[in-house]
Amino acid sequence: MRKQIAAANWKMNLTLVEGEQLINDIVEANIELQPNQQAIFAVPFPYLLSIKKIADKVANFKIAAQNCNNHKSGAYTGEVSAPMLQHLGIEYVIIGHSERREYYHESNEMLAQKVNIALENKVAPIFCCGESLSIREANTQNDHIEQQLKESLFHLTAAQMNGFIIAYEPIWAIGTGRTATSEQAQDMHQHIRTVIANQYGTSVAASVSILYGGSVKANNAVDIFSKPDVDGGLVGGASLIPAEFIAIIKSLK
């Protein structure tokens, strides 16, 4: 059975004291995850080791970085490399988040480089894809997502894609007042899995965890996660509220 994942993306929020209190509150909920379930916490770079020390108390609680550079080292002031993450014992890294694509103009080619460097250093990517409102209104979202996957991932081998993690972000439904239904989430997740199957076969496609990143909250997680091709969520704002994220973790199937 492929992994079911509740991934928290803290973004650029919280002081270290606040972050430690948040993760402690979640740890103290004594959530017992099944072997196929994980909670992943993508925290700001300065907090990685401190939060990891607390999360390590719980089986299947993992830590992720929110980004890495597309170079192994060099004169890139302020950047963090995949080898650095590996040496800190960080197992996951978010790559291609919609905010990185929009604000820092990260291209599909650059993201392919980041995926490669992460894998070379045994840091598992959580690869984000998604479409804007204009693309959704033009009804070209399927082609857009397929292009993102092909240009950033389809150079990988079947072995590298086996068990891969993808997060689908309907950018048009995040903070816009528009709502994506669980049926729309399932439709896109099914499309993503079909695109992967066409390239790598149904066995690999069935192993890929596809997370939904469209304003997952405690009151909609059960419905969204119940869909057959939705394997959990990449959670933003709700992951900063202990009770909300605890409920979301408990909604995993």
From TrEMBL:
Q: Source taxonomy lineage?
A: Bacteria, Pseudomonadati, Bacteroidota, Chitinophagia, Chitinophagales
PANTHER family noted in UniProt: TRIOSEPHOSPHATE ISOMERASE
Enzyme Commission code(s) on record:
5.3.1.1
Record the organism: Ferruginibacter yonginensis
UniProt-listed Pfam families: TIM
Q: Name one GO molecular function term.
A: triose-phosphate isomerase activity
Q: What does this protein do?
A: Involved in the gluconeogenesis. Catalyzes stereospecifically the conversion of dihydroxyacetone phosphate (DHAP) to D-glyceraldehyde-3-phosphate (G3P).
Entry's SUPFAM superfamilies? Triosephosphate isomerase (TIM)
| Binding-site list for substrate | N9, W10, K11, G175, S215, G236, G237
State the name under which the record lists this protein. Triosephosphate isomerase
Complex formation: Homodimer.
Q: In which pathway does it act?
A: Carbohydrate biosynthesis; gluconeogenesis; Carbohydrate degradation; glycolysis; D-glyceraldehyde 3-phosphate from glycerone phosphate: step 1/1
Q: Where located?
A: Cytoplasm
Catalytic reaction annotation = D-glyceraldehyde 3-phosphate = dihydroxyacetone phosphate
Keyword terms of this UniProt record:
Cytoplasm, Gluconeogenesis, Glycolysis, Isomerase
Q: Which residues form the active site?
A: H97, E169
Family per record: Belongs to the triosephosphate isomerase family.
Source species, domain of life: Bacteria
